[in-house]
Amino acid sequence: MKALEDLRDSVESLFGAVSIPTLDMRKINSRIDKHISRQNLGRRAMTWLGEFFRSPWRTAYAAQTVLLVVLGAALLWPATRDNEYTTLTLRPGLADGHYVRVVFSPDLTHSSINDLLEDLQLRIVAGPSDRGVYTLVTENSNAVEQRDDALAKLSTNPDVLFAQPVNQGARQ
Question: How far apart (Å, rounded) are the C-alpha atoms in residues 81 and 11?
Answer without folding.
Answer: 91
